[in-house]
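Study this fold:
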Amino acid sequence: MKIEAEYEAKTLLSKEHYDQLMQHYPDALNHIEEQTNYYFDTADQQFKSQHSALRIRQIAQENVLTAKIRIQDYHQEVTLPLTDAQVGEILATGTLHLPDDFQQLLHSYGMVGHLACAKLCTHFHTKRAELKVGTLTLCFDAVTFKDHSDYEFEVEAQSSEQASYALRKILTTYDIPYIKSEPKIARALKTYTTP
């Protein structure tokens, strides 16, 4: 199990502005990963109401369960690697089976939703190009939901202020407008809900 803080700032992009940024940061094309993201919540959306999320992300040969827990201006991420068999069982049943120590840790962070009642609520695919620039990580995401696609640019940094500053500076430099970006899970839930 791994715990780390996530400080990020992001914006939605038009396809034109996404392509424009990719032209200015071509080295990002050397670091592309295909992700499938599965999100879980309770029927009454307890995790959403806490500005938190439970996700399984599949990348190539890696499966990671992540709890994103909102703390002031950042997310605390608690991650746990999963085997293909564990993911297969979870996706077949649509229900998470979390180890006791993972559940206890989530409870200690105040993520008190009924973890046993969490069910698969949405999924989507992300093609992410990523580039390290000093202490920053620039993420260029092309996201495919059930009935549409969109584009997002994200800056990860060592503080929320640093991430916001870097995002504004890049957008200003390339004359790209800021468009508030809801979390991907929120955008996915607007277009797709499992029966």
